[in-house]
Amino acid sequence: MQAFFSIFQLHVLIPWLLAMALGIFVGGIPGLTATMAVALIVPLTYHVEAIAGIAMIIGVSFTSIFAGDIPATFLRVPGTPASGAAVLDGYQMHLKGQGSLAITLDLICSAIGGLVGILILIFVAPALSRFALKFTHFEYFWLGVLGLSMSAVISRGSRIKGLISMVLGVLVSTIGIDITTGYPRFAFGNIQLMEGIEFIPVMIGLFGISEVLRSIFTMEDMAGAVFDEKIKLTSRSVGKVINENKLLITQSSVVGTLIGALPGAGADVAAWVAYGLAKRTSKNSDQFGAGCVEGVIAPTSANNAAIGGTWIPALVFGIPGDTITAIVLGAMMMYGLKPGPLVFEGERLLVNQIFSVGLVSQLFLLILGYIGIKSFTWFFRFPRNIVFGGILIFSVVGSFAIRNNLFDVGVVLIFGILGFVMERSEIPLAPLILGLILGPMIEENLRIGLIKTSGSFAAFVTRPISVSLATILVVMFLWDPIKSLVLKLVKRHS
Amino acid sequence: MKWTFNQEHIIGILCIAIGTTVLILTKSFPGGTAAAEISGPAFFPNVLSYGLIILGIYQILSGFFSPKAQTHSISTIWKGMRSKEFLNLVIICVALLIYILTVKKVGFYATSALFLGVVLWRLGVKFRNNLISTLVFLAVIYLVFSKIFAVTLPSGILF
Fold it and tell me: Is the ipTM here above 0.85?
């Protein structure tokens, strides 16, 4: 209870609520993602207490994911990638004159989904952490590789391009002093490079600056997205719909949490999977896509539930579930906290504070979401080009403020251009960030493991947990070829 | 079948080039003490470089044999980019570079005002809105970073 009440202090509450309000604003503007919202506030979190900083990040992720559904419902433009599935039926409901019902259901389901995700986190994470205590260097190596590979496999488009992005990220993580020998790698005598590449400027560049650069080419297309309608929130019939679909809400929230817990799969994947599952299990499957409430309930419950799910591998193993938790892990390390099974013993108070923040954020989401919906018309009158100009200057100042260092601003520029080129070439960005975060963990555990065994790789593939993780990895990569081979054989025999 | 030089080839060549460069650079790293130099600083970057080279070769091959890749000619990267917009992209990047190089000498607020003005101008914001937005953003930065979080921003010869 001490942890629960400690989050209601003003120095935690004020930045937390302000960050959540920012999340509504950023998420509601098409083109600006939840990751970008988090990237924008991370530099600010370094100037507040650890729990206030983490509350800001958790809060902003919940509100920005929800707010992305507002333009998805009314303009058919997803505010964030996580709202892609919400467009289908939300917009159709709006066309049928049920837009207010759709967005009210959306808000309530987002809060319920978020709540379920956090509750699963609260019950699963501590139990899983006791199991994680059995892990040694060999298991952590495979876990890191598994987390990285999954991000490359799950990311949209070419799997090979995902792997290229991942390897590049890990290579960037090798720049700087080698932790084992103290030798400066790829530093070329530059002191800044010896300290290594900070992941926050890389992330601000990849997700913030590249988005601004990309927006230059879409500015005219987005100008057509205008909205001039008063939205009335309806409480009538919402209770009835929620009651009739409580099983679907539970199913979608649980699915969302599980998908979120897979490293690399975020809220967007969760929303699509939940939507697909709801369509398959519903009696009204033919109504999906034509504006049915189930098509709104499933993705909106799942995308916010996924946020709780992403925290499970992050807290228990130190493996980020998505780019947002990757940022959180980086931020926690800056605070001197090392996520992993021991955090549940050594930092019990902070872990409970994180759980409490997650739960209370759902209440704040309802309040701020309501205000966000009401002020939606104002959002869309705000010129996007001015917003992007603001993002650019805040990205620059934010990255400078981390270490009072202009080198980091240079990193922002370089990775901004790189991110822009990568997106044009259909190379996913998320594996690069995860590679940068997980690279040192993989290298450390691989090298220490090999030193322990005098260079033998046997221990990596003979210990029970190690071999299980390695098998999952192999199956993951061979799944598609094996599946198509089996299908071919079955077809030939039949 | 006629093969065209496409986007996949460029990605593959870049991967091989990066991988090879890393392998050349790590040659000057000190060796490790244990078997196969696993404790040395070059071990991990070398493993990654070999991986990147293999991925690069795969990418080049898929550029030849994948039907989808054949439609991704080099010009796909520039698809949808109009010359005016491309110019804006270059101007914004160059403005940011000049900003990084001059902010310490000139001063944060003066350089930022100029930088923001140029960016908003290239993003199509009209003069009056540009001026108001620049002033508002700088005021917010002053309040949040300088006053609330006490971040020391470069003062330079101006301000």
Answer: yes
